[in-house]
């Protein structure tokens, strides 16, 4: 798979403070790339470098194989975390203006805006002033303006902050659809649940360093711990526990069930298989629950950050 | 379409369509004219009141010299004591009572002249009364010494030096004053314009930050384009408003004076009088001819072109400084600390203009300040009527516009860094650090 965007060895310093220390990322064409990290890790700085708002002190960013160039602005759509609109301008005028700044002609912009306004059912906002809009309404306009010029690369910095669940879902679906239509999306956030749902690739930045990156599924494989959640209906709980303890590493598990099962997290050592575990379990009672524990992005995030 | 023209257009339309801008554009001339009309009306009211001053002249030397005028009437009291006179004047609510006692000599009388009144009298009235008495007293003294006052005034010599350059061009002192006045008016106009519209540029630069649209905009355009667009757009809006003010103001002025007939004719009569005086006096006639001659000799085309260039350049330079302040701060309250140092050079320019250029238009100080871009728009404009070689004017213009582009670049740099520092109030030290990023 081709990489649309490659950042190599980016270093950015503000005075004595290093905001990015030798960070490299590769964003594959057509993927949704999650840029994760705690607050203040350097996500926004990296995004600003990609948007050419600031220049890196060292390192190289290429888009589609070309060194980043001012004309590339037309190929990038950026929805910043700190976002707003001109308050005293009318919605339609403002959208036209911002679209023209991205290189669209007025006629093109008008046509595409009509499409999006109809799609979101907000055609009658055209002549409203922005100060009459609610925050959620303004965010919709900002989203439209971000994607209007059909950029190859879309960058969303905390896109869901400020949206109610219904609108957040609407935006999420739009993002997925844009991906299906061929756009590449960078998604910066510290909200892990949305990453879990949407991202194919992630990079984790912590204290100015990239500490993890790759395909989400590969990372999960790497972080899997061979632990299974097990629920077992048995008459003699104590005997069962002692029996299992001899063969496996056991720990208490908490998950919800409707019966009075014994619940364990059982780790399979090397040389043991899941099938063996199941046959041991079924010999002692009725197996009601057997799930491999897959690390969530949240777990990986916390674990990696703490290990560093 | 090019980004700069897009931004300029948006800024211009945004300003011009703004409700308070429209209201102020049309209200300001109304308020101004109303104020002028009010002042004119009040002055007239004041002048219409006739002051009656009673005069009790026991010496019988001066009473005949007090001639009543339209606004001041003298009521000569005879054969009455001072105490009675006081009573009468107080009851009649006259303006006051002038008492001149008997005496052996003029000096003895002069010491004892008194003026009684309810409140302290107007200075102008007192000067007029004192002048009348002094003139009469001097004439009496002259005659007593055996001199003819008429002869004395005939012997008086009036010197009016005729000025001429080595090239044989005649100039006049009055002409020099006119030249200075041209520079003064130009400088004052620039000063006013900067103060009124500089702030508008600053606010417009802060706008993106307060509305938080800054990152969206700055990911599409370069800061320098944004700042230039803002400076141009706001300036155009300012010029539009200014022109409307001038046109509307003069139309209103004409309407008001036509409807209320305020004082315009009186002013003209005063002018007529001066002209009559001038034509009756050959020396003054000559002077006037010289002034007119000199005005025609002024490099008018040069002056007008340079006025436009220096005005634009000066405004853009100061506008870009306001933009730099706007770039450095998050909101208007943080701008205070930067305002004073910004206006200092402008005030300096006005002072240098009025004190140094008047003294010596081509002296070292005047020359230096006419090249420093922060003062050159005012100082150079004041020097040009006195004759400055074209190459010097062009050099000064070049420095001015060069500095303008440098300040915009400097402002753009501050702006770029300032984005990353939301909510931080910048100090000068911080600003210098930002420039090095």
Task: Provide an overview of this structure.
The complex is a heterodimer of chains A (308) and B (437). Chain A is α/β, with parallel strands linked by helices and 308 residues long. Chain A folds into two domains: 3-86 and 149-221, P-loop containing nucleotide triphosphate hydrolases (Rossmann fold, 3-Layer(aba) Sandwich); 225-292, Alpha-Beta Plaits, CATH 3.30.70. Chain A has helices at residues 43-50, 91-101, 106-119, 135-147, 165-180, 192-198, 216-223, 237-247, 274-284, 297-307; strands at residues 3-14, 17-28, 32-36, 58-63, 66-67, 76-79, 153-157, 184-189, 201-206, 209-215, 227-233, 249-252, 262-267, 286-292. Chain A has a six-stranded mixed sheet with strand order 6-7-8-3-9-10, with helices on both faces. Chain A has a four-stranded antiparallel sheet with strand order 2-1-4-5, with helices on one face. Chain A has a four-stranded antiparallel sheet with strand order 12-13-11-14, covered by helices on one side. The two termini of chain A are 30 Å apart. In chain A, 37% of the residues are buried. Chain B has 437 residues and is mainly alpha-helical. Chain B has two domains: 2-30 and 175-247 and 298-435, no CATH class; 49-155, D-Maltodextrin-Binding Protein, domain 2 (3-Layer(aba) Sandwich). Chain B contains 17 helices and six strands. Chain B has helices at residues 3-17, 19-48, 82-92, 106-112, 123-144, 149-155, 173-210, 214-218, 223-260, 264-280, 282-297, 300-328, 336-359, 364-369, 376-383, 390-419, 428-436; strands spanning 51-57, 72-77, 96-100, 114-116, 163-164, 170-171. The longest helix of chain B is centred in the middle third of the chain and has 38 residues, at 173-210. Chain B starts with a helix and ends with a helix. Classes of the chains: A alpha/beta (308), B mainly alpha (437). At the A-B interface, strand 6, helix 2 and helix 4 of A face helix 1 and helix 8 of B.
């Amino acid at each position: 798979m081709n990489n649309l965007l490659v950042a190599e060895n980016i270093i950015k310093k503000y005075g004595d403070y290093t905001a990015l220390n030798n960070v490299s990322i590769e964003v594959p064409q057509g993927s949704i790339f999650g840029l994760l990290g705690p607050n203040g890790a350097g996500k926004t700085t990296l995004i600003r470098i990609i948007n050419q708002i600031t220049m890196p002190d060292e390192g190289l960013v290429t888009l589609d194989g070309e060194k980043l160039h001012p004309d590339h602005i037309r190929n990038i759509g950026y929805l910043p975390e700190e976002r707003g609109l001109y308050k005293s301008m009318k919605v339609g005028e403002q959208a036209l203006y911002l679209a023209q700044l991205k290189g669209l002609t007025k006629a093109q912009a008008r046509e595409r805006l009509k499409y999006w306004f109809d799609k979101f059912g907000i055609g009658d906002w055209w002549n409203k002033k922005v100060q009459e809009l609610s925050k959620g309404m303004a965010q919709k306009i900002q989203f439209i303006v971000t994607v209007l010029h059909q950029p190859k690369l879309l960058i969303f910095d905390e896109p869901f902050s400020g949206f109610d669940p219904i609108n957040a879902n609407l935006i999420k679906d739009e993002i997925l659809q844009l991906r299906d239509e061929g756009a590449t999306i960078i998604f910066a956030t510290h909200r892990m649940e949305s990453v879990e749902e949407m991202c194919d690739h992630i990079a984790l930045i912590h204290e100015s360093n990239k500490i993890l990156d790759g395909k989400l599924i590969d990372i999960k494989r790497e972080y899997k711990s061979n632990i299974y959640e097990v629920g077992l209906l048995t008459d003699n709980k104590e005997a069962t526990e002692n029996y299992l303890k001899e063969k496996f590493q056991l720990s208490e598990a908490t998950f919800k069930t409707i019966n009075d099962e014994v619940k364990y997290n059982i780790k399979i050592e090397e040389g043991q298989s899941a099938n063996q575990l199941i046959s041991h379990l079924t010999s002692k009672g009725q197996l009601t629950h057997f799930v491999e524990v897959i690390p969530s992005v949240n777990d990986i995030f916390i674990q990696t950050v703490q290990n560093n | 379409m090019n980004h700069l023209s897009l931004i300029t257009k948006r800024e211009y339309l945004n300003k011009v369509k703004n409700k308070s801008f429209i209201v102020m554009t049309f209200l300001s001339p109304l308020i101004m004219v109303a104020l002028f009309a009010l002042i004119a009306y009040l002055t007239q009211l004041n002048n219409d009141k006739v002051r009656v001053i009673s005069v009790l002249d026991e010496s019988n030397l001066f009473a005949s010299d007090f001639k009543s005028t339209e606004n001041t009437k003298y009521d000569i009291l005879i054969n009455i004591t001072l105490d009675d006179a006081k009573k009468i004047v107080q009851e009649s609510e006259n303006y006051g009572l002038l008492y001149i006692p008997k005496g052996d000599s003029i000096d003895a009388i002069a010491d004892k002249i008194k003026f009684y009144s309810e409140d302290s009298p107007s200075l102008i009235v007192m000067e007029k009364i004192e002048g009348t008495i002094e003139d009469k007293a001097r004439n009496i003294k002259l005659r007593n010494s055996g001199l003819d006052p008429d002869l004395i005034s005939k012997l008086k010599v009036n010197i009016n030096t005729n000025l001429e350059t080595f090239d044989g061009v005649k100039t006049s002192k009055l002409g020099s004053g006119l030249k200075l006045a041209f520079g003064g008016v130009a400088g004052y106009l620039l000063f006013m314009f900067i103060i009124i519209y500089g702030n508008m540029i600053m606010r417009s630069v802060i706008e993106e930050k307060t509305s938080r649209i800054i990152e969206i905009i700055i990911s599409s355009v370069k800061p320098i384009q944004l700042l230039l667009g803002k400076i141009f757009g706001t300036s155009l809006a300012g010029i539009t408003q200014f022109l409307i003010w001038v046109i509307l103001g003069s139309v209103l002025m004409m309407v008001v004076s036509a409807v209320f007939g305020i004082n315009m004719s009186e002013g003209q009569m005063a002018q007529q009088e001066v002209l009559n005086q001038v034509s009756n006096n050959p020396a003054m006639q000559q002077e006037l001819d010289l002034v007119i001659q000199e005005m025609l000799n002024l490099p008018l085309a040069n002056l007008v072109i340079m006025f436009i260039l220096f005005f634009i350049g000066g405004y853009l330079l100061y506008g870009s400084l306001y933009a730099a302040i706007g770039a450095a701060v998050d909101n208007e309250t943080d701008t205070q600390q930067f305002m004073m140092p910004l206006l200092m050079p402008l005030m300096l320019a006005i002072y240098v203009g009025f004190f140094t250029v008047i003294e010596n238009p081509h002296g070292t100080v005047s020359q230096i300040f006419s090249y420093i871009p922060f003062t050159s728009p005012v100082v150079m404009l004041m020097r040009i009527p006195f004759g400055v070689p074209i190459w010097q004017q062009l050099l000064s213009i070049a420095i001015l516009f060069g500095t303008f582009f440098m300040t915009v670049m400097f402002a753009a740099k501050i702006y770029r860094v300032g984005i990353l520092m939301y909510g931080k109030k910048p100090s000068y030290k911080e600003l210098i650090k930002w420039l090095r990023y």
